[in-house]
Specification:
The complex is a heterodimer.
Chain A (H helix, E strand, L loop, with lengths): L1 H14 L3 H50 L2 H6 L2 H43 L1 H7 L2 H39 L1 H6 L3 H53 L5 H42 L21 E10 L11 H5 L1 E11 L4 E5 L6 H8 L10 E3 L2 E2 L5 H7 E4 L10 H5 L8 H10 L26 H15 L3 E5 L7 H15 L3 E5 L11 E6 L2 E6 L1 H7 L2 H23 L2
Parallel strand pairs in A: 3-8, 3-9, 6-7, 7-8
Antiparallel strand pairs in A: 1-2, 1-4, 4-5, 9-10
Helix pairs in contact in A: 1-2, 1-9, 2-4, 4-5, 4-6, 4-9, 5-8, 6-8, 6-9, 8-9, 14-15, 17-18
Chain B lengths: L9 H7 L2 H11 L3 H33 L7 H47 L2 H6 L2 H43 L1 H8 L2 H38 L1 H6 L3 H52 L13 H15 L5 H23 L20 E11 L2 E11 L4 E5 L6 H8 L7 E6 L2 E2 L5 H7 E4 L10 H6 L7 H10 L3 H4 L19 H15 L3 E5 L7 H15 L3 E5 L3 H6 L2 E6 L2 E6 L1 H7 L2 H9 L5
Parallel strand pairs in B: 3-8, 3-9, 6-7, 7-8
Antiparallel strand pairs in B: 1-2, 1-4, 4-5, 9-10
Helix pairs in contact in B: 3-4, 3-6, 3-11, 4-6, 6-7, 6-11, 6-12, 8-10, 10-11, 16-18, 18-19
Chain lengths: ~575, ~600
C-alpha cells in the first residue's frame, strides 16, 4: 500500500497526469487500505493472541515446576520473591511477547517495502542513506545490554521491597505495640529509595537509547540531502525520485524511533524471562529414580543406617566457628536405628540436635543419599515418592492453613472423605472442643481471608489431617508443643488406637510422653548419643537421665508446693 | 504503521486519566513540580526542533533543488544536522527529568502508603489478605509510574505538538488541512465506540488476574503441604481453570485492541488518499475549484511529513493504551486503600498525661473480634503499681486479647480500661504504647544486626544502654559465639537464632525501653533446660520494679506472681495467689493439675 501511494505520488507529480488517474489511485488507496486493515487486524489478533497463549503456557509451566520442587527449595526462597517472579516477571514477558513482537514484525515488513522502493529509485543514494545504521545499531546493542542488566537489578529490588512489605505487614501487631512504626518505616524507605535509584539508572539508559533512534533517521536524511542535492542538480537523479526517496526514509522514521522503546521493553522482557528460567531450570532434587519399583508400601517397618545429613549452609550459624565448617554443616551424623512395623520410637534432644531434620529425612522431604533409610525393606530413595507420601503421615511443628473451610483443611489429603470421617479426625485430635468458638464450626473459613487459629489449634488441625489418612508411618515433630498438657494428654490417649499397628516416630519435649516408647533416641549435636527404653536410659545415667531428673525436680518442686497448699 | 490512530485519540486518553485520580496524584507531584515544568519545557523545545526538520527539508527542495541553486544548500543541511543533534540531547534530558520527578513522587507515594498501612487498625488486617496489600505498595505503584512517564507530561507535550502541527498544516495549506479534517468525525466515532467495548473486557481481565495472583500466593505458601498430601493434581487442575480464564479474558481484549488499532490505521490511510487526491490535483494544476496550481513540490513533501508527525503522538496508542489502563486501575486501587479510614479513633486523646505509676484497671470489659462471637464478657480487675499478675486459662479463653486491648490494638466494645488513672482512649496512641512494654509470644526480628534489633531505632536508647540491657538479659553468653558479636547480622526472620535466644532478645528490647508496665505473652513452645534457666533469671531481672501482666505458661512464673487471674471462656472466674487458688480447688486447681504437670 505504502509503495503504491508513494510510487503514485512521485509519478503523478513528475508527469502531471490526468485528474482521472488521481481519482483512480485515490480510490485504489482506499480499497487497499480497507484490505490492509483486515489483514492487520487478523495478524495482530494472531500475534497478540499467541503471545497471550504463550504466556498462559509459561505460567502453567512455571506452576507445574513449582509443584515439583522440593521443600528445600521453599526454605531457600521466600514466598514474596517467588510471587514477584510468577507475577511481575510473567507480566514483563507478556510485554515482550505481545506488542514487541507485533511491532518488530510490522516494522520489518515496513522496512522491506520501503527499502525495496528506495533501491528501485536510486541504489547509490539508498546505500548512502543507510550508512549510519550499523554504527547506531552497535551503540544501541551495547545500551540494550546495559538496560538488560539494570532491568534485572530493578526487578530484584522490587522483589526485595515486596518481601519487606510482606514482613512488615505480617508483624504489624508487634510493630504497633512497641511503637516501632518510624523504625520500620525507615527500613522500608531504604528499600524504596534503592529501588528508585535503580530505576533512575535505568531511565538514563533508556533516555539515551530512545532519542538515539530518532537522531539515526535524521542522520540518514542529512546524508541523503548532501549527497542527493548534487545528484539532482547534476541530473543523475530526478527531483521526483529524490523527494520520494526522502519520503520513504521519513516513513520508517516513526517505527525506528519507537524501536528504542521496543528494544528496552525487549530487554526488560528478556531479563524477566531469565529470572523465570532460573526457576524452570532448577533441578528437581526429589524425584523418582528410574529403578523405582511400582509397588505400594505395605508396612511401616523402618531401618536407618548411618544416616548423615549436611546442609550447604552459607549462613554462619553459631556453634560452627571455623570457616570450613561454615560451608557444610553436618546436622545428622551417622544415625542408625531399627523400628519394626508397629513400634513406637521417641526422639529427644536439645534444640538444634537434629530432631526435625531426622523427621524430615524419614518423610522424604530432604535430599538424602541412597542406602541410608529403608522403609518396608526398600531403600526410601528408590521407592516412588507418591507411594512414600501415601504411606507416611507427617505432622510438622508449625502449619499452614489454606483459605478454605476447616473441614476442607482437615480433608486436605483426602478431599473425598465423608463428613463423619472428618468429624472423627477432628474429635481424635481434640480440635472438636474448640469448634463452638468458631463462628461456623467445621465450615468456618480459615487462612488469610478467614479466621486465624491459635498455634495449638493449628497443630491439632495438622494432626487431624494426618489422622484422617491413617498412614503406615506416623511422624510427629513436637506436635504438641503449643498444646496445653491437659489437651496433650487427651490427644495421646486418642492417638493410641491409631498408633496400634503403625510405626510412630515422635519428637517430644515432655519426656513423659515417651515413657511407653519401644525405643528412645537421644540426639545431641546431630549424633545419636543414647538409645534404649525409658528405664534403660534412666539407669545408664546419661543425657536422658539428666534431662529427666531436671523435669522431675521441677515436678517435685511443684508437688511440694501443692502439699503446702493442702494443709 | 505510518498513519495510525486518530486526531480524536486524546479524547478517550483524557477520559482514561479520570480527573479525580489526576488530582490526587498531583498532590504527590506538586513538591517536584519544578522538575515537571522543566521537563515540559524541554519537551516543547524538542518538539519545536522536531517540527523544524521537515521545514528545513522543504526549503532545501523548493529553494535550492528545484531551481538548481546550490549555494546556501550545505549550510542549510548543516543546520538540519545541528537541529537533530540538539534534539537528541534535549529529549534525553527531558525523559530523565520527567522520570526523576515521577520517581520522587512515587517514592513519596510509597512511603505515604506504607505510613497509611502502619496506621490501619489490627481489625483491618484481620479482614484483608496481606498478599493483596503488598501488591498495592509494589506492583500497583510500579504501574502508576507508567501513567506518569507515558501519561501526564507526554499528554501535555502531545497536545502542544498537535496544536503546533495543526497550525503549521494550516499555514502550509489551509484548504488541504480542512479537507483532511473531514475525517475527524470518523476517527472520533470509531474510537469511542470500540473503547466503550474494551473497557468491560479489561475489568473482567483485571479481576481474573487478581484472582490468579491470590491463588498463586496461597499455593506457593502451602506448597510443601500440597506435596505431602499428594494434592498436586487437584491443585494443578484448579490452577488450569483460573489460568485458562485469564487467557480467555485476555484474548477478548486482544480482539478489540487489534480491531481498534487497525481501524485507526485504515482511517489514517484514507486521510493520506485525501491529501493525494486533493493536493495532487492542485499541484498538477487541475484543481477542482479551478484556482490553478498553488502547491509546491516541497510543500507537498512537508505536508505529508507533517501529517505523519501529526499522527506520531498517537502512533503507538495501542501500546500506551494497555499501560494507561493498567495504571489507571492501579491508581484507583491505591487511592481506594488510602481512603480506608479504619484506624483506632484518637479523637479523645488529651494532652494532660498522668504520671507513669504502672496501675492498670479493667472495668467490665466486653470485646469480640467478630460480631456475635464474644471473646471477653465483662472482665474487671485491678493491678496495683509494682504488682506482678499472671493470667492463666485454656487456649481460646481470651488471654492474649487482654494484652491487645491494653495497648489499644483493638478498642473495647463496652466498659473501659484505665491506665494510671486515665482511660486508655484518652492517651495519644504513641504515649500509651510507650508506657506499656510488650513481649509477644512470637519474636519479630528486623533486618539489621542484633544491636539494632535491641535499640530499634529509638533515639532515647543509647548503645551503652542497649548493651547493658542485653547483658542483664544474659545475651552475652550466646552473642559471644558470633564472629561480629552484637554486630552480627540477623538473618531472615532470625534463622540464626534459636527460639530461646529470640526470647531473650525480646526481653532485652523491653529492658532497654524501661517501661513502667511490662506485658508479656510467654512463648508456649518448649525450650531446652539450659535456655529455660536463662529465661527464668532474665525474667526476674526484667520485671523487677515494674508492674507486670503476664500470660503465663511457666510454672515458675505463676509461683512468683503476686496474684493470678483465671480466665475461662471470656470471664474472670477466679483471682488470688497461687496458694489461695489451690486451696479453693476450683478452675485454677483443675487447670494447674493438668496444664503444668510435667512442664519444664
Amino acid at each position: 500500500m505504502d509503495r503504491l501511494q508513494e510510487g503514485e505520488t512521485q509519478e503523478l507529480i513528475q508527469s502531471g497526469e490526468l485528474a482521472g488517474l488521481i481519482w483512480k489511485s485515490a480510490l485504489g488507496i482506499v480499497a487497499l487500505a480497507a484490505g490492509v486493515a483486515v489483514v492487520r487486524t487478523c495478524s495482530r489478533i494472531l500475534i497478540l493472541g499467541n503471545s497471550r497463549r504463550a504466556v498462559h503456557d509459561l505460567r502453567e509451566l512455571l506452576f507445574d515446576k513449582l509443584l515439583k520442587l522440593a521443600p528445600s527449595f521453599y526454605q531457600r526462597h521466600q514466598t514474596g520473591h517467588l510471587m514477584s517472579r510468577a507475577v511481575n516477571d510473567v507480566q514483563n514477558v507478556q510485554g515482550l511477547m505481545g506488542p514487541v513482537f507485533m511491532y518488530l514484525s510490522e516494522t520489518a515488513a515496513l522496512y522491506a517495502i520501503c527499502l525495496t522502493s528506495m533501491l528501485t529509485l536510486s541504489p547509490k543514494l539508498t546505500a548512502i542513506s543507510l550508512l549510519p545504521f550499523p554504527l547506531f545499531l552497535v551503540a544501541a546493542r551495547s545500551l540494550a545490554g546495559r538496560i538488560h542488566q539494570s532491568s534485572r537489578e530493578a526487578q530484584e529490588r522490587l522483589g526485595q521491597l515486596s518481601a519487606k512489605v510482606d514482613e512488615s505487614l505480617s508483624g504489624q501487631l508487634i510493630i504497633k505495640s512497641l511503637t516501632l512504626e518510624s523504625f520500620d518505616r525507615d527500613l522500608f524507605i531504604a528499600h524504596a529509595t534503592e529501588l528508585k535509584d535503580t530505576h533512575l539508572k535505568l531511565t538514563w539508559l533508556r533516555a539515551t537509547l530512545m532519542p538515539l533512534m530518532v537522531v539515526l533517521v535524521s542522520f540518514s536524511t542529512f546524508l541523503t540531502l548532501i549527497f542527493g542535492g548534487p545528484m539532482v542538480s547534476g541530473g543523475a537523479l530526478s527531483l521526483g525520485d529524490f523527494v520520494a526517496l526522502v519520503l520513504y526514509l521519513q516513513m520508517v522514521a516513526g517505527p525506528t524511533a519507537a524501536l528504542g522503546f521496543v528494544l528496552s521493553s525487549l530487554q526488560r522482557g528478556a531479563a524477566a524471562l531469565a529470572r523465570i528460567r532460573e526457576i524452570l531450570e532448577t533441578e528437581v532434587t526429589l524425584q523418582d529414580s528410574s529403578s523405582s519399583p511400582e509397588r505400594p508400601v505395605h508396612s511401616g517397618a523402618l531401618e536407618v543406617r548411618e544416616l548423615t545429613v549436611s546442609y550447604p549452609s552459607s549462613s554462619p550459624t553459631h556453634g560452627d566457628p571455623s570457616p570450613a565448617e561454615k560451608r557444610k554443616r553436618t546436622v545428622l551424623d551417622r544415625i542408625s536405628f531399627k523400628a519394626p512395623a508397629g513400634s513406637f520410637i521417641g526422639v529427644v534432644g536439645p534444640i538444634g540436635s537434629g530432631k526435625t531434620t531426622l523427621i524430615r529425612a524419614l518423610a522424604r522431604q530432604l535430599e538424602i543419599g541412597t542406602g541410608q533409610v529403608f522403609l518396608d525393606n526398600e531403600d526410601l530413595t528408590q521407592l516412588p515418592i507418591r507411594e512414600v507420601r501415601k504411606a507416611v503421615g507427617l505432622v510438622p511443628q508449625d502449619n499452614f492453613l489454606f483459605s478454605r473451610s476447616l473441614a476442607e483443611n482437615v480433608a486436605l489429603g483426602k478431599p473425598e472423605a465423608s463428613r463423619e470421617a472428618v468429624v472423627q479426625a477432628v474429635e481424635a485430635s481434640q480440635l472438636a472442643q474448640d469448634l463452638p468458638q468458631l463462628p461456623k464450626g467445621l465450615d468456618t473459613l480459615l487462612g488469610e481471608r478467614g479466621v486465624n487459629l491459635s498455634g495449638g489449634q493449628r497443630q491439632r488441625t495438622a494432626l487431624a489431617r494426618v489422622m484422617l489418612l491413617r498412614p503406615k508411618l506416623l511422624l510427629l515433630d513436637d506436635t504438641l508443643s503449643a498444646v496445653d498438657t491437659q489437651t496433650a494428654e487427651k490427644i495421646l490417649t486418642a492417638l493410641e488406637p491409631l498408633m496400634a499397628g503403625r510405626t510412630t516416630v515422635m519428637v517430644a519435649h515432655r519426656l513423659r510422653h515417651l515413657q511407653r516408647a519401644d525405643l528412645i533416641l537421644v540426639l545431641e549435636n546431630g549424633r545419636l548419643v543414647e538409645t534404649g527404653k525409658h528405664e534403660q536410659l534412666l539407669a545408664s545415667g546419661g543425657l536422658y537421665a539428666a534431662l529427666y531428673a531436671q523435669q522431675e525436680q521441677r515436678a517435685a518442686l511443684k508437688e511440694d508446693l501443692q502439699r503446702e497448699d493442702q494443709p | 504503521m505510518n498513519l495510525p490512530a486518530s486526531s480524536s485519540g486524546t479524547e478517550p486518553e483524557t477520559k482514561l486519566v479520570d480527573r479525580r485520580l489526576a488530582k490526587r496524584f498531583w498532590i504527590f507531584i506538586r513538591p517536584h513540580q519544578r522538575l515537571v515544568w522543566a521537563g515540559l519545557g524541554l519537551l516543547l523545545s524538542a518538539s519545536l526542533l522536531s517540527l523544524a526538520k521537515p521545514f528545513l527539508v522543504m526549503r532545501a527542495i523548493d529553494q535550492h533543488m528545484v531551481p538548481g541553486r546550490m549555494e546556501g544548500f550545505y549550510p542549510l543541511a548543516g543546520i538540519f544536522l545541528a537541529v537533530a543533534v540538539l534534539e537528541f540531547f534535549l529529549r534525553r534530558r527531558q525523559m530523565y527529568t520527567v522520570d526523576l520527578a515521577g520517581q520522587k513522587a512515587l517514592l513519596d507515594l510509597r512511603v505515604q502508603l506504607f505510613r497509611h498501612l502502619q496506621r490501619l487498625s489490627s481489625s483491618f488486617y484481620d479482614r484483608t489478605p496481606i498478599g493483596r496489600l503488598v501488591g498495592r505498595v509494589t506492583t500497583d505503584v510500579q504501574a502508576l509510574q507508567e501513567l506518569f512517564s507515558s501519561g501526564v507530561v507526554t499528554i501535555l507535550g502531545d497536545l502542544f505538538f498537535l496544536t503546533a502541527t495543526f497550525g503549521i498544516l494550516l499555514y502550509l495549506n489551509w484548504q488541504l488541512t480542512l479537507v483532511c479534517m473531514v475525517m475527524a468525525p470518523f476517527f472520533l466515532f470509531t474510537s469511542i465506540w470500540i473503547r466503550n467495548r474494551v473497557r468491560g473486557a479489561y475489568s473482567r481481565m483485571r479481576e481474573r488476574i487478581s484472582q490468579l495472583n491470590t491463588f498463586l500466593h496461597e499455593q506457593i505458601s502451602g506448597m510443601p503441604l500440597i506435596q505431602m498430601f499428594l494434592q498436586e493434581e487437584a491443585t494443578e487442575k484448579s490452577f488450569r481453570t483460573i489460568n485458562d480464564d485469564v487467557r480467555d479474558s485476555q484474548l477478548q481484549t486482544v480482539w478489540w485492541e487489534s480491531t481498534l488499532s487497525a481501524a485507526m490505521e485504515m482511517l489514517g490511510s484514507f486521510t493520506l488518499a485525501l491529501i493525494l487526491w486533493y493536493g495532487g490535483s492542485r499541484i498538477t494544476g487541475t484543481d477542482l475549484s479551478g484556482e490553478g496550481a498553488s502547491l509546491t513540490l516541497g510543500s507537498l513533501f512537508a505536508f505529508i511529513n507533517y501529517m505523519q508527525k501529526f499522527f506520531q503522538p498517537l502512533n503507538d496508542l495501542s501500546m500506551k493504551y494497555t499501560v494507561m489502563q493498567n495504571a489507571t486501575i492501579a491508581g484507583r486501587r491505591i487511592f481506594d486503600l488510602l481512603d480506608q479510614e479504619d484506624w483506632i479513633d484518637q479523637r479523645q486523646a488529651t494532652d494532660t498525661l498522668p504520671e507513669a505509676r504502672g496501675e492498670i484497671r479493667f472495668e467490665n470489659v466486653h470485646f469480640s473480634y467478630q460480631h456475635g462471637d464474644p471473646v471477653l464478657q465483662g472482665v474487671s480487675f485491678h493491678v496495683r503499681p509494682g504488682e506482678k499478675v499472671a493470667v492463666v486459662g485454656a487456649t481460646g479463653a481470651g488471654k492474649t486479647t487482654l494484652l491487645k486491648l491494653l495497648t489499644r490494638l483493638y478498642d473495647v466494645n463496652q466498659g473501659r480500661i484505665v491506665l494510671d488513672g486515665q482511660d486508655v482512649r484518652h492517651y495519644p496512641l504513641e504515649n500509651l504504647r510507650k508506657r506499656v512494654g510488650v513481649v509477644p509470644q512470637e519474636v519479630f526480628l528486623f533486618e539489621g544486626d542484633i544491636l539494632s534489633n535491641i535499640r530499634l531505632g529509638k533515639p532515647e536508647i543509647s548503645e551503652e544502654a542497649a548493651l547493658q540491657a542485653a547483658s542483664q538479659m544474659g545475651l552475652d553468653s550466646f552473642v559471644q559465639r558470633f564472629p561480629h558479636g552484637y554486630r552480627e547480622p540477623v538473618q531472615e526472620r532470625g534463622k540464626n537464632l534459636s527460639s530461646g535466644e529470640r526470647q531473650l532478645l525480646a526481653f532485652a528490647r523491653v529492658m532497654a525501653l524501661a517501661p513502667q508496665v511490662l506485658v508479656l505473652d510467654e512463648a508456649t513452645a518448649n525450650v531446652d533446660t539450659q535456655t529455660e534457666d536463662l529465661i527464668q533469671s532474665a525474667l526476674q531481672a526484667l520485671w523487677h520494679g515494674r508492674t507486670a501482666l503476664i500470660i503465663a505458661h511457666r510454672l515458675s512464673t505463676i509461683q512468683d506472681a503476686d496474684r493470678i487471674l483465671v480466665l475461662h471462656q471470656g470471664k474472670l472466674v477466679e483471682e488470688g495467689n497461687h496458694r489461695q487458688l489451690m486451696a479453693r480447688r476450683g478452675t485454677y486447681w483443675r487447670l494447674h493439675q493438668l496444664q503444668f504437670e510435667g512442664s519444664l
